C-alpha cells in the first residue's frame, strides 16, 4: 500500500449496503486501492462521535458507515483532501452527501421541517435524494435511542438550536445531566445539569443559592466567558425533557422528581438524550438494576396417554417471579400492558425489558389461541428461545435465568425420537421398485416418507456411494403408488450426472413416467404445459443450467416433491441460480448431498432455506448467531446449538460406520512425496520474492485475491514448470526431467496398466490433464480421455460406460467436473495429481471408485511436493480435521492466515 500524502485527491466508490448504510472504498490518484485504515483516518478525521473513525466498521478493505456518520463527516471535511467519485454514479453520491451535509450544518436548520405526522419535510430547492438521505439521518438518531417517530420534532428542535449556537471555540468542560437518588426515606430524586472537567473527571454544580441565577452569575470566574453557551445548552436540553421545572431563562436545570416522574424520565427522555449525545449520569445501583429481569418459567406437556405424537397440542403452565417473589399471571400481563421500564419491589429497583416481555406475552397468547404442537418445538426453536431447562440457582443472589423451559417426560421422548431418527415406522417397499434396499437404505427411505407425512423438508446427506439415488427413487414410487402425489415431481441435478439419473430410473423404476427437460429440443410454453398435464404425477428431470434458463416457467408450477441432487450447487446464496431454486414451490422439498458443507456455513443456510424457507432465520441473523462465533472463534456452544437445530432434518451416514454393514473392501490412502527439481526451486523462490511485498501490504479482498492467485500459480509450478511459465509442451522425456511429480505419475500409471487394473487421475488444472495425456500417449501408447466441464453430455455418458466396461485403463478427470455424481467402480486406483485445500472435494472424487459396487482393494495416492505449500497445506488440513469432522469443512481459512503464517506457508521448507 502506498503511503498517503496530503493535498491530494481520493476517489471514492460508493454503494448502499443492505442494512441501510453505505459502503465506501478509497483509491488514490493512480487508481490503487488504499484500504480501510487510511480511508477512515481521512474521511472521519474530525468525527468525534466515531472517535475519528475508530468505531467505523471495516468491510474487506472498504468501510461501512451510517447515513448520520456520512453526513456529519462530509459536513466537516479534511482540509487537505478532496473526495471525488470513482465513477459518474459515485460522483453523484458525493454531491448528495455534500448537499445534505450543508443543510444539516446550517444555523437554525431553516430548510428542515418536522411534519405533525412524524415524517421529515424539507424546503423547496432541496433535491429529492438529499431529502431522503436527511430523513435517514434523523431516523438513525431515533433508532439509536430506540425512540419513536413521535419524538422527531424534539430532535429537530434540539438540532436547530444546537446548530444556531454552534461555536468553533472548544469548551473546557462537558455538559451532562445527573440523576441522584433520595438521600433519605423522606427525600426525593434530583435531576440537575452539571459540568464535567474532561481532564480530572470531577463534577461541578452551582451552589444552592445560585442555581436559579443565570450562568453569567453562577459560573466560576474562569468559565464566565462561556456563560452564553451554557445558557443556550440549558435551554436546548429543556426543550426535549418531558418533565418541566418551569425554568426558561437559561439557568441551570435542578429540580426534584417523584418516583413516577423518574420512571417517565428513564423510559421517555433517557434514550432521546443519549441519542442526542448528551451524557446522563445514573446512580450505580440503578445501572445494575438494568441487568435484573423477571424470571419466566414454562412447563410444557402433551399427549393424555403419556405418549406424545408430533401433532399433539402442547399444554403450557406459566409462572413468573421478580426478586424471588412470585407474580400472579394477571399482574404479569398488566406489567406488559403498561409497558413500564422500571419497577420497584421493596427497596430494590428492577428493569422490565418491555420488548422482551411483550414477546413472552405474545407467545402465551399464541399458545392459548393457535395451539402449539410437538412439531413446533422443532420449527420454532422454543427450547433455545426460552432456555434449556436449567436448574434452580443455588445462590439466590446470582442472576436468574431469563427463561426456564421444562418438558414433560413423554414430550422429551417425542422430540428425541425425531432428532435421533429411532422409532420411525417402516414403510413397505413400492411394488414398482426393481431393487432390494439394504437395511440402511430402507431406513433412509422410511425417514423420507416420515418427513413427507409430517411436513418436514429433508436433507439426505449420506456419503457418496451409499445409494441416495435409489432411496429417492423408492420415495417417488411410494408417493405415486400411494396416491398422495397429485402433481409431477421435479429433480434438478448437475449436467454431469443427468445421464446417470436416466439410467438409474430406467433400471430401478422402469414403469415410472419421466420427462427429461434438457437440451435444445426440450419442450417449452404450451407444449411443456401439455406434456406436464399428460405426465400426471410422474417425474421431470432437468439440470441446474437448464433450470436457470427456464426458471420462470418452472417456478410458476406447483410441484409435488422438489429434489436437488448435489444440493451444494445452491451453496452460494447470492447467485441468481440459488435464489431461483429457493423460490420453487413443492409439497415436499428434499436435498441430496454428500457434502452439506464444503467451505462455509453459509452453504448450510442456503440448503436449509430451500427445504424450509426461513427456518434458520434471515441470513444476517444466522451469520451473527452461528457463522461468526463458529468460523471465527470456534465456539463449541454455538456449534452444539446449530447441530441441535439442523439434526432433525438431516440424515447423515458414512461408509466408515460399521453399523451399515456395507462389506466394502479396504481402502488405503497415502501421500506420494516428491521433491522439486532445481528449476522448480529457483522459480518458486523467485516468484515468492516478487509477490510477497505486495501481499504483506494488501488488505481485505485485495489481500485474499493475491493469496488465491499465489496458491494457484505455486501449485501449477509444483506440477510442472511449463504450466507455470505457460510454455508449449516439449518431448515427453524432456518434460519428465523437469518434474519429479510428473515422472512419478507416469511410472505409477504404467505399472497399474501393466497389472491389468484401471486408474482415475484427478487434477484441478486443464493444463496438467493435457500434459498427462500427452506423456501417456507418447511414452506408453496409452490413450487416456480427459473429462472436463466443457465435454458434451453424450460424450461424457459414453466414456463412463466404456470405462466401466473395461474399454480403456486410464481416465483423467477434472476435479470439479468429474468429482461428483459418477460411478467409476471399474477403477481400483485413484491418483490426485495436485492437492485441493478442501478435503471434502478430494473425498468426493475418491468416492467415484470407492462406493457400493466396488469389490476390490482401493489404493488412493495424493501427490505432495516436499517443502512447498502442498506439504504445508496438507499439515494444516490434518490439524483442522477435528473441527471439520464436528460440523464444518472450511476452505476459506487459508486466505485468513496472519503474515507470520503466510511467511511460513510460502517459504520452501
Automatic annotation (TrEMBL):
Q: What Gene3D superfamilies does the database record attribute to this sequence?
A: P-loop containing nucleotide triphosphate hydrolases, Tandem AAA-ATPase domain
The organism's place on the tree of life at top rank: Bacteria
Which InterPro entries did the record assign? DUF3670 (IPR022138), Helicase_ATP-bd (IPR014001), Helicase_C-like (IPR001650), P-loop_NTPase (IPR027417), SNF2-like_sf (IPR038718), SNF2/RAD54-like_C (IPR049730), SNF2_N (IPR000330), SNF2_RAD54_helicase_repair (IPR050496)
Alphabetically list the UniProt keywords: Hydrolase
One Pfam family in the UniProt entry? SNF2-rel_dom
Keyword Hydrolase (UniProt): yes
Q: Which Gene Ontology molecular-function terms are recorded?
A: ATP binding; DNA translocase activity; hydrolase activity
Span of domain Helicase C-terminal: 747-906
Entry's PROSITE patterns?
HELICASE_ATP_BIND_1, HELICASE_CTER
Q: Which residues form the Helicase ATP-binding domain?
A: 449-614
Q: What is this protein called?
A: N-formylmethionyl-tRNA deformylase
The scientific name of the source species is Bhargavaea cecembensis DSE10
